[in-house]
């Protein structure tokens, strides 16, 4: 269970990504120092205002003397300096001493909107298995806030699970890149891409037999098709092995369809996945 202290914390290079970039709530990154009088005056006010909002916004305190690398990364030249993060990226910045009323207004502007709360309710229903109810709430949220990423990704997730691909790409093309939602949008788009490539049941055994009996460039093409079918079935590592073999067997596949399919698998797995890193290196070696 989260406590108030979970949302007001000291932060440094080691935990900046985990606690700020990957935070599920907006984060005020307060660059300060103990010798800075305005910083010390504003510190208790800022902490109080954040705690009053019950975990809907967080405060990461960065001592510039103890964390010079972070200060340099954000080009901190004077303090106090607050960088505001949301969904994994900086969205605003305020510098200098700020009155309590202005700080309160700043924090309130970061709290979830009615549509964001609706998307949270939709996610809870989705996780409980009430997909119809979740879809209704996601669509209702999008009526009020057309480009709400949480609702777009959630609705796309439900539609793709039902095999309804037509609306998925339109929903996801407008999702902001970066952060967990951006990563999930890329993964869902990759799944939709393979679902489009392999309509209907992915008959993997038939494709595998075809690849085993073919020769030359026909074999490379058959392995490409098998790789796409494996990817459509979620067998991503097996898919990448077939796709890399197809690329090795036909230069046209390497610079075209096989490369494109491998990139889609990388999106489905995520950039940090070890399988992605392994096969991306192998693809780069082939392309060089």
Tags for this model:
288 residues, alpha/beta, Glutaredoxin, Serine Threonine Protein Phosphatase 5, Tetratricopeptide repeat, 3 domains, 5-stranded mixed sheet, 62% helix, 10% strand, elongated
Describe this structure as you would to a colleague:
With 288 residues, the chain is α/β, with parallel strands linked by helices. Helices cover 62% and strands 10% of the residues. It has 3 domains: 105 residues, Glutaredoxin, CATH 3.40.30.10; 84 residues, Serine Threonine Protein Phosphatase 5, Tetratricopeptide repeat, CATH 1.25.40; 84 residues, Serine Threonine Protein Phosphatase 5, Tetratricopeptide repeat, CATH 1.25.40. The chain is built from 15 helices and 5 strands. The protein has a 5-stranded mixed sheet, with helices on both faces. A hairpin with a 2-residue loop joins strand 4 and strand 5.
Short structural description:
This protein has helices at 13-21, 37-52, 68-73, 100-108, 114-127, 131-144, 149-161, 168-173, 179-197, 204-213, 216-232, 236-249, 251-254, 257-269, 274-287; strands at 8-10, 27-32, 58-63, 81-86, 89-95.
Number of helices: 15
Task: Find the CATH topology of the largest domain.
Answer: Glutaredoxin
CATH C-level label of the largest domain? Alpha Beta
Number of strands: 5
How many distinct domains? 3
Helix content: 55-70%
Q: What is the overall pLDDT average?
A: 92
Shape: elongated
Low-confidence stretches: none
Computed over alpha carbons, the radius of gyration is 24 Å
Beta content comes to 5-15%
- Structural class designation: alpha/beta
Order of helices and strands: EHEHEHEEHHHHHHHHHHHH
CATH architecture of the largest domain: 3-Layer(aba) Sandwich
Distance between the termini: 51 Å
CATH homologous superfamily grouping of the largest domain: Glutaredoxin
User: In this structure, how is the largest beta sheet organized?
Assistant: 5 strands, mixed
């Amino acid at each position: 269970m989260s406590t108030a202290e979970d949302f007001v914390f000291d932060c440094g290079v080691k935990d900046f990504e985990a606690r700020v970039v990957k935070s599920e709530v907006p984060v005020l990154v307060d660059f300060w120092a103990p010798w800075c009088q305005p910083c010390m005056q504003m510190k208790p006010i800022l902490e109080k205002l954040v705690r009053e909002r019950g975990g809907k916004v967080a405060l990461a305190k960065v001592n510039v003397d103890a964390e010079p690398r972070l200060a340099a990364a954000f080009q901190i030249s004077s303090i106090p300096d607050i960088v505001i993060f949301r969904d994994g990226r900086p969205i605003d910045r305020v510098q200098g001493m700020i009155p309590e009323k202005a700080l309160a207004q700043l924090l309130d502007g970061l709290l979830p909107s009615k549509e964001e709360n609706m998307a949270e309710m939709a996610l809870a229903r989705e996780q409980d298995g009430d997909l119809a109810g979740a879809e209704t709430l996601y669509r209702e949220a999008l009526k009020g806030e057309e480009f709400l990423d949480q609702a777009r990704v959630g609705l796309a997730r439900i539609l793709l699970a039902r095999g309804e691909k037509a609306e998925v790409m339109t929903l996801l093309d407008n999702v902001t890149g970066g952060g967990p939602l951006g990563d999930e949008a890329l993964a869902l788009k990759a799944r939709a891409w393979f679902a489009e490539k392999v309509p209907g049941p992915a008959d993997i055994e038939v494709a595998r037999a075809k690849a085993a009996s073919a020769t030359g460039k026909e074999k490379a093409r058959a392995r490409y098709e098998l790789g796409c079918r494996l990817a459509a079935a979620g067998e991503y590592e097996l898919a990448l092995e077939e796709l890399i073999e197809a690329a090795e067997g036909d230069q046209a596949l390497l610079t075209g369809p096989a490369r494109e399919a491998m990139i889609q698998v990388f999106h489905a797995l995520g950039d940090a996945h070890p399988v992605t890193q392994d096969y991306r290196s192998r693809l780069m070696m082939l392309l060089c």
